[in-house]
Design goal:
heterodimer, A: Helix Hairpins, 5 helices, 0% strand, B: 496 residues
Chain lengths: 126, 496
């Protein structure tokens, strides 16, 4: 069990990061900390993808010096997926930050519980 | 290859283009453009449906890279039926809710709202057509972003708060879905659904392989069930649906959450294979959660104090039904689940578009005590609410009855007696609770209230025609349910 974990330490770290991010996103009451959790969670997945896609000893998939054998290069798809994932993650974070700004301007706090209580008392919000 | 084979891609690309176009034209023009565009798209989808019904399903290879590498779009009978239904509901919701859109937001921002709806159409269509799991993830995120957008257009504090909670849960779901997809890609080496299924079948032959596969499918399933609002992740529903502008509530409850479930079913059938799914406990867990969702969603709906919360909680119960069907499994279970996706989409969007009209003639208040007699003050909305309520309870000739019948039949076909008894109990309990709270509401809105002055609403065709389309669709699904069932079965056979 432990040897397997050590042999795949990158994957293990990635899944632990995902777990940390997931729990932060779920249980932190502060919106900014939630967003940090979101980014840690996404980066965990990207680390998993990137580490799986890399085979040590091989090169980036750009044909150089006329070597055309597929044995010489790594698979470009995981890198492509990571890039797509990063774009998605950035845009989601941007939207969430803008929502956070809007909530902060209105309620002057970042704590979701406090915002919830405040929103129940403000009559124009109902 | 026929010209019609380009329609699936065209629905995605044209919707993206329409989204961009709507940002530069005025709000009024954007509304008209969106309506016309949706009618055109509906026409194209009808033509596509006839094509796939006659000639069978086809795969559209993007960029001419063949199977294990490229990206693919696939259209079969089931995809065509779901896309067509979604498009009709989208068009009707836009038409019927247009007046509230202009009431709820600043005139200068109305065009942006329609831009968001068009982008949402693109994402819905892409998720329905795609044959690639990762493309599914990308458009899932686009769908999440646009649904957040259509929520926050109504600028009161509660909608922003509801949007933040909605987003947080959706992001948790997307994260889990992505992790599941990455695990599946890691094990099978494919992102396209058909090659993935072939490798998954080989993996499942080995017990260790099956365990890891079960884990990945489990993660992916949890992700999508959080996003669609399966019990116990349904608590965001009342605030989200209750506070949004009516078109958004209708679209979010009937299209967005159903689209996630459709993707899940598609992955089960095309990327994992139902034979492999039989060896996993995923179905049983979904069955139990679905059942709990049905009962507890209905109980919460009974305790709600305003009509919007009641309808939103009843949505949670209906999502429970769909997952119950998936949990029963087999072709019958999935057919019932898919039929209920169609039936509930048609019914719930209709109800969400009547409640604001009823509230409007009740001093703008959605609490039950204000709504007394509202159906007499706005007769059209009252009748349409009645149709929706009867369908939700499951009165024969309406769509809700047909889907409850299908769930019962699917449970009878299933070998396990425990599932049969539990399904029947859940169906009975839920029908009774549904009847209790919907009949109570109907009686209340039809009881005259002399305290409120009686004024007649002006009846507009822009509202009545779409609502009649909903009623007709509801009756069609109720009276001719065998047509829809046959089409769904045909589509599922094409999936394999």
């Amino acid at each position: 069990m432990l040897e397997n974990l050590l042999a795949n330490y990158e994957e293990a770290v990635a899944v632990i990061l995902f777990g940390i991010g997931f729990v932060m996103l779920l249980f932190q009451r502060n919106l900014i900390k939630k967003l940090i959790g979101l980014n840690i969670m996404d980066n965990g997945v990207f680390l998993l993808l990137a580490s799986m896609g890399y085979i040590s000893g091989r090169k980036a998939p750009i044909i150089a010096d006329g070597v055309q054998s597929t044995e010489a290069y790594i698979n470009p798809v995981p890198a492509g997926l990571v890039l797509t994932g990063i774009v998605v993650s950035v845009s989601v974070t941007a939207i969430m930050l803008s929502l956070t700004v809007r909530l902060y301007k209105r309620y002057h706090t970042l704590n979701l519980d406090e915002i919830y209580i405040l929103s129940r008392h403000l009559s124009e919000d109902r | 290859m026929s010209f019609l084979c380009n329609v699936p891609l065209a629905t995605i690309v044209l919707s993206l283009f329409s989204g961009v176009l709507c940002t530069v034209i005025s709000g009024k023009a954007a509304r008209r453009y969106t309506l016309v565009y949706e009618c055109v798209l509906t026409g194209l989808l009808v033509a596509l449906f006839v094509h796939v019904y006659r000639n069978g399903s086809f795969t559209y290879v993007m960029g001419e890279f063949p199977a294990p590498w490229g990206n693919e779009i696939r259209a079969g009978v089931l995809e065509a039926v779901v896309a067509l239904t979604f498009m009709v509901i989208m068009g009707c919701s836009v038409a019927a809710g247009a007046r509230f859109v202009s009431l709820d937001m600043d005139e200068s921002k109305v065009n942006l709202y329609y831009a968001l709806l068009n982008l949402m159409t693109a994402a819905l269509m892409a998720i329905i057509w795609t044959n690639d799991v990762f493309t599914g993830y990308v458009f899932l995120e686009i769908l999440t972003l646009t649904s957040c957008g259509v929520l926050i257009v109504r600028e009161i504090g509660r909608t922003t708060l509801a949007a933040v909670r909605y987003m947080i849960l959706n992001l948790l779901g997307s994260g889990l879905f992505l992790l599941g997809v990455v695990f599946l890609y890691d094990m099978t080496g494919h992102l396209l659904m058909v090659p993935m299924r072939e490798t998954a079948a080989e993996l499942a032959a080995d017990p260790q392989g099956l365990t890891v596969l079960t884990l990945s499918v489990g993660i992916l399933t949890i992700g999508l069930s959080i996003k669609s609002g399966l019990f116990p992740f349904h608590f965001w529903m009342p605030d989200t649906y209750g506070k949004a502008t009516p078109t958004s509530a209708s679209v979010l409850s009937s299209l967005v959450s159903k689209c996630y479930i459709f993707l899940l079913i598609k992955i089960y059938w095309r990327a994992i294979g139902v034979d492999v799914m039989m060896h996993m406990p995923v179905g049983n867990i979904l069955f139990v959660l679905g059942m709990l969702g049905i009962v507890l969603g209905s109980v919460s709906a009974m305790r709600a104090e305003d009509i919007n919360r009641m309808v939103a909680f009843s949505s949670a119960a209906q999502i429970g039904y769909i997952f119950l069907g998936i949990g029963i499994g087999g072709q019958e279970g999935y057919t019932a689940a898919l039929f209920h996706i169609l039936a509930h989409s048609v019914t719930k969007s209709m109800i969400f578009l009547t409640t604001p009209r009823l509230a409007e003639v009740s001093e703008g208040n959605v609490a039950f005590r204000y709504l007394q007699g509202s159906a007499l003050r706005d007769r059209n909305a009252g009748v349409f609410f009645l149709v929706g309520a009867l369908s939700m309870i499951g009165i024969p000739i309406f769509a809700g009855f047909a889907s409850k019948l299908l769930f019962g039949l699917a449970a009878l076909e299933h070998q396990s007696d425990a599932k049969l008894v539990l399904t029947m109990l859940a169906l009975a309990a839920s029908s009774m609770l549904n009847a209790l709270y919907f009949i109570r509401t109907v009686i209340r809105i039809y009881t005259p209230n002399p305290a409120v002055r009686d004024y007649r609403r002006r009846h507009s065709a822009a509202y009545n025609i779409p609502m009649m389309v909903f009623t007709a669709a509801n009756l069609f699904l109720g009276l001719f349910s065998w047509v829809a069932v046959r089409l769904i079965q045909l589509g599922l056979e094409q999936f394999v």
